[in-house]
């Protein structure tokens, strides 16, 4: 796909979402897949691109579980975001206007909406999913940074945090990484970190990271759980950062962790 690739227009996208009937089930996904199969391959791609754009608009939404009010994280959050989209355009607008939502955990099938277009495209065409022209997409951006924020003084001095921060610095200061950034005129790549220490009252639970893209911004949000890495294990901390780097490499075409940090 080249730089002329465009997401589906809003009416077309929402008419396809309406095929779901307001929720994601195995049956409604089958209906949507069958509808997508009847479209030209480029329109299937355009549907996915619009879905990605709509999901990006939910990046700052406060999503919580209705039973206990806890923040939804990882795949559960993504499933809840997809269920919000599946409910339709009007429902999405209401949720965005509120800025927060509490919801029951959606059915297991919900995550299937994230990949239905890709699966259908590859089934129909027999070809791999076409990746977008990343260089053209990111050409408007200028600044690249990686940092850990939102830390208490105690957290900032924690050995794991120091090791993660060191690995992030080595990554963004890598000549390989810098050449890729400048060659593509990449945009703002912002790494936002938080330390979860179960001994700290009020600490948010869970270990997770995910990529977010908004107007002019590529954001990676991640959280370190000290229950999952040894307190002074610098090797585990670097492996954590390598996971983030390689996720971005797959998603945006950036250099891998081996290319930027060397062989582990």
Describe this structure in words.
This protein is of the alpha/beta class. Helices cover 47% and strands 12% of the residues. Strand 4 (208-214) and strand 5 form a beta hairpin. Helix 9 runs parallel beside helix 11. The model is unreliable at 134-143 and 203-216 (pLDDT under 50).
List the helices and strands and how they pair.
Elements lengths: L9 H8 L8 H12 L3 H16 L5 E4 L8 H13 L2 H10 L1 E4 L12 H10 L8 H4 L15 H4 L2 H14 L2 H10 L3 E9 L11 E7 L2 E9 L8 H19 L4 H5 L3
Parallel strand pairs: 1-2, 3-5
Antiparallel strand pairs: 4-5
Helix pairs in contact: 2-6, 3-6, 9-11
Order of helices and strands: HHHEHHEHHHHHEEEHH
- Counted by DSSP, the helix tally is 12
Query: Major beta sheet, specifics?
Result: 3 strands, mixed
Distance between the termini: 34 Å
Stretches with pLDDT under 50, minimum 5 residues? 134-143, 203-216
CA-based shape? globular
Summary, kept brief:
The chain has helices at residues 10-17, 26-37, 41-56, 74-86, 89-98, 116-125, 134-137, 153-156, 159-172, 175-184, 234-252, 257-261, and strands at 62-65, 100-103, 188-196, 208-214, 217-225. The protein is an alpha/beta fold and 264 residues long.
